[in-house]
Amino acid sequence: MSSPLNIHAIGLALPRLDGPAKVTGAAPYAYEHVVEHPAYLFPVQASIARGRVVAIDTSAAAAVPGVLDVMTHENAPRLASDGDLELWVLQSDQVFYRGQFVAAVTAESPETARHAAGLVRVDYAQERHDVVLNADSDELYVPGMLTVGEPTDSDDGDLDAGLAAAEIVVDQTYTTPMEHNNPMEPHAVIAAWHGTGEDARLTIYCGSQGVSWMQAELATMFGLEPSRIRMVSPYVGGGFGSKAFVHPDTVLAALAAQRSGGRPVKLALTRQQMFAIVGYRTSTIQRVQLGADRDGRLTAIAHEVVQLTSRFKEWVEQTALSTRTMYAAPNRRTKHRVARLDLPQPTIMRAPGECPGMFATEVAMDELAVACGLDPIELRIRNEPDLDPDTGLPFSGRHVVECYREGARRFGWEGRDPTPRVRREHGWLVGTGMAASTYPAVRMAGSAASIRFGADGCYVVQIAAADIGTGTWTTLTQVAADALAVPVTSIDLRIGDTALPPGSAAGRSSGMASWGSTIVAAACAFRDAYGTDPPVDAEAQAPMPDHPEAERYAAHSFGAQFAEVRVHADTGEIRVSRMLGVFDAGRIVNPRTARSQFVGGMTMGISMALHENSRARPAVRPRRQPGLRRVPHRRERRHRRDRRRLDRRTRPASQGAGCAWHR
């Protein structure tokens, strides 16, 4: 197979190719696809945390003019599989969590459906419930494996001996709250059935991070061959993990469409409904123990995590996973313990596990720096590993020390006074800090790409990838242009549809590595078959290539971030006046889109630290969504314009920058 990759587009800071369509409103999001004669759906949600539905009175709702159907567990179509209880929508009277769908109204207008849904009366038999994470619970259990497939626990060396030998020990417990996914585009779906019986086909328009994954999930739930389900999602208004999998809203819409007499059914969740239906980051209780000698060299690291999952489906985040890799120590231990609670199902939220886990590890490292009397950067450099501490493999590239030093130079770190409450400016206490960041470089299997030469001289490149706002449409076009040795304007990229060759999901920053290598393989196959002067309609397809050499290395992105924070001495108001990040994420395909990812991650970090704190209380109260005053605004972001990257090539494969996380 030839290798036609000719670098000319990769590395250019091209503006996003889908930008004009989005800002002019020409790009159709999930709810905006044009379908003929749609009906509208609005759900009824459970008001208890655990129990059973004993009676439902739908008469008032059914009597509202314009109401077409009221669906409950008593009359909903039967699903083919009960293997995923999160998606077992309206199949029984059991209530697993507050906010679960217990009924739904289909009507001629969304206003009518919402009004009628409010008239449905539901009686419950409540059961004792538990919604509070407790590290002392007798019901904590050891999961078989982390959700990402890594071992639940790790134990290297002799931790107790390492701590006993340490001259300085930090032993702290850190907690992080639940944080809910709230992408700019709320979750919405259009479901339409075509044909009946063995000829039945289902079309779903939705915002999806992985249409091929969702197609497979729905095929299982409805007992259909995947080829009889088409998922359409060309544009996605953000996801942060919440649109990687099928959620109950998609199943509900498909069930309602089975009862709609052939009419498409449209459902758009409200912001309030999203807090119960589309997932969240689990809360955590994390104990971190660090042992070190007087020079700050680690003798032991322990990271023990308690986190939650729902009672009906397991979700185990890899919270301590980064601790296994980040710093060198001869004695290391990580543990994950899980509590089953009567709450909705947690799911992916940007850098799941790594984000809260790195927070705890990095704060503990800062505590150790104080205890040792060392600069936080110097402490981290002294504990920099030569090989991956977890696997013993060499790193494909690890330039985090360069990130520390370049960041310190640009930030003005030298000469800072680390003493608290020393620096005052016009009534504000001013402090500075830094932290390291890391995220694994991952490729996900299951992608294929096709390339066809069109009569207009353009190459139609097709893969069921997803652009969730990260710039994938643009960067994959750049990769395709270089792989075919043609201008970017000669590439017609098509994504987000299961009618195309399959694609893995946009998750764990794996998109560019997975889809990009697949497109390069398809370009190689195309050029091998047709050369540089192909006939019209010439076409070639290839799966994602194997990369056995990658197994010989530990691949991660790294970074260092610096912040200046001001706290008003009288009012306690907090302002993040300055931030800087320096990142090592391999060769950057598009500096503009990569910068947006880094800026977005840092902004999200501010929001997590200062604003986000979803709470589950034993007493039932309505969830409140944040107003605009509770998100980072210009005053908090005005000085955060300096982002730097190290454009370092890594061996042997590509990697992503989307979740290079920080605290």
Q: Could you characterize the architecture of this molecule?
A:
- Residues 611-663 are annotated as: Disordered.
- InterPro entries: Ald_Oxase/Xan_DH_a/b, Ald_Oxase/Xan_DH_a/b_sf, Ald_Oxase/xanthine_DH-like, AldOxase/xan_DH_MoCoBD1, AldOxase/xan_DH_MoCoBD2, AldOxase/xan_DH_Mopterin-bd_sf.
- This is Xanthine dehydrogenase YagR molybdenum-binding subunit.
- By secondary structure, this protein is of the alpha+beta class.
- The chain has four domains: 19-28 and 444-546, Aldehyde Oxidoreductase, domain 4 (2-Layer Sandwich); 33-128 and 184-238 and 244-277, Aldehyde oxidase/xanthine dehydrogenase, molybdopterin binding domain (Aldehyde Oxidoreductase, domain 4); 149-176 and 279-344 and 351-390, Aldehyde Oxidoreductase, domain 4 (2-Layer Sandwich), CATH 3.30.365; 393-439 and 550-617 and 627-663, Aldehyde oxidase/xanthine dehydrogenase, molybdopterin binding domain (Aldehyde Oxidoreductase, domain 4, 2-Layer Sandwich).
- It contains 15 helices and 26 strands.
- A hairpin with a 6-residue loop joins strand 10 (188-194) and strand 11.
- Helix 12 runs parallel beside helix 13.
